[in-house]
Amino acid sequence: MSISTPQAGGNRRPSSKPAAGGKPAPDASGDKPKADAADARTPTDKPARPAKAARSGATSGSSPRARTTAAERSAGGRATGGRSGGGNRPPTAGRGGGGGRPPITPVKINQGRHWGPVALISSVSLVAAAIVVFAVYEVHQNGRGWQSKADAIQGIVDYRKTETDLLKPAQHAYGKINYPQSPPVGGTHNYNWERCQGDVYPDQIPNENAVHALEHGAVWVTYNPSLPKDEVDQLASKVRGNDFMLMSPYPGLDKPISLQAWGFQLKLDHANDPRIDQFIKDLRVNATMEPGVTCGQDSGSYVTKTGPDPANLGQSGAPAPAGMPSVAGS
Amino acid sequence: MFGLFATPRRRALTIGTVVAVLALVIGFGAGWLAPSLRTPGDNSPEAGFARDMSTHHAQAVSMAMTAYPKATMPEVRQMAYDIALSQQNQIGVMQTWLRDWNLEPTGSQPKMAWMPGGTQELTPDGLMPGMATDAQLQQLSSATGKQVDILFCQLMLRHHLGGIHMIDALLQLSHNQQVRDLAQTMKTNQQAEVDQMQTLLTQLGAEPLSS
């Protein structure tokens, strides 16, 4: 069968030749050229392919047609394209024409395309690309800012978008302060912050001190005093022992539960709502207006006061007690 | 469309281009992802440690700030000053890690879940090992005179031992050098302070807390 192996490539794959040539063909006259063609082509191809090509040649059966294809090929592609053609074929062309001899071309059939390997490589690449793209998307989503994550919580109100004063430096003041939101989510507040190191207050706490805790990055959990005890306990378990969290009942609350961070509010009906954890995850500490400040320090600077009226620790002519870290208008 | 496959050359070019583009997409995406694959994840011991130790430290800072202005022994005041400032700084470092790792300050799992059996070590009040109860904080807050020195040393000594316990867990679990380095330094410092506080308590004629 090694009839036409003029080029160096010819003897490189003797194994594939018997397979191609050995195919029993019903039409003996058609067999020869077909075999020639297969021979010449074989070295260029991957081992799997010649058999298939030969097979398809055998079934379609007409050698003239095979030759036409070969001619077209060598004229249109291989001969002109030569070694510059990229992709999967050029090595052959280079090898075949390399000797300075004109490419001997009885040659080159390309009936069946290599759709098998092509499809395999393409689909594997596509799947790999899809996986990578998905992972990139996920990581990107994960890397979104906390504010856009919080904004995506269903039902949350982002007052930072509508009340832009909330983004300006907040002032300190003594005495009662009226807030547009209930419970309040930010604004001018008392000099002293309500301690927010996982404190669960059994009674109402002053708005003015709680807002100062929000400024420090705390999440303030409030509930209507009529909330069933088991739900109150469930809420408390999310607060107790967790820095930058505080919780208190809020008489007159228009919903059973309301969560506050500086500039954000989410009102809910039930303590088992998964949005509660989401709110805390997205906004606790992140929502601080003073990065690095704490929720409880020297006992002179925080209060654990309950009742509706603000605590005014250290109000004595001076604007604030000495040693208080948060005096500077922030 | 089929023109792209009309000749072998075109076909080769087309397929080559497609493969090259896909390879670029994969390569770029993988390169983009690589840093996030190397940083600790949301439920990693490193992230859990950074979050929980921040909370643990915050109470120490709080106690130290309470004791600092009113403790009577200069050695106690010096230690309170040192603890407040260094641990507040370490909180900042740990919070910055979380930000660098693209993680939130708040975890998805309960406190201490990163330690084997850790959640069982929480008190009913949700306090981590060594932390003072609210009543003890109130006690310290209202104490005066030598009682401040004694209470501070007692509470802080136990607080440090709880902290060292958590640090040991991290050192067992983590291979992140950056995290291990800080944890090891914390442990060394706190161990030294534990020894000092024991000495101070002896001088004050008091005992460490039993538990």
Give a description of the structure.
Chain A: Residues 16-28, 62-77 have a biased composition (Low complexity). Chain A: Residues 1-110, 296-330 are annotated as: Disordered. Chain A: It comes from Rugosimonospora acidiphila. The complex is a heterodimer of chains A (330) and B (211). By secondary structure, chain A is of the alpha/beta class. Chain A has eleven helices and eight strands. In chain A, the strands form two sheets. In chain A, strands 1-7-6-4-5-3 form a six-stranded mixed beta sheet. Chain A has a two-stranded parallel sheet with strand order 2-8. The N and C termini of chain A lie far apart (92 Å). Chain B has six helices and no strands. The longest helix of chain B is centred in the first third of the chain and has 31 residues, at 8-38. Chain B starts with 7 loop residues before the first helix and ends in an 8-residue tail after the last helix.
Defining key terms:
heterodimer, A: 330 residues, alpha/beta, Glutaredoxin, six-stranded mixed sheet, disordered N terminus, disordered C terminus, B: 211 residues, Ferritin, 2 domains, 6 helices, membrane (chain B)
What would CATH call the class of the largest domain in chain B? Mainly Alpha
Average pLDDT confidence of chain A is: 73
The helix content of chain B is 55-70%
CATH fold-level name of the domain at 157-303 in chain A: Glutaredoxin
**What is the CATH class of the domain at 157-303 in chain A?**
Alpha Beta
Number of helices of chain B: 6
Low-confidence stretches of chain A: 1-98, 316-330
Looking at the structure, what is the overall shape of chain A? elongated
**Outline of chain B, from the CA principal axes?**
rod-shaped
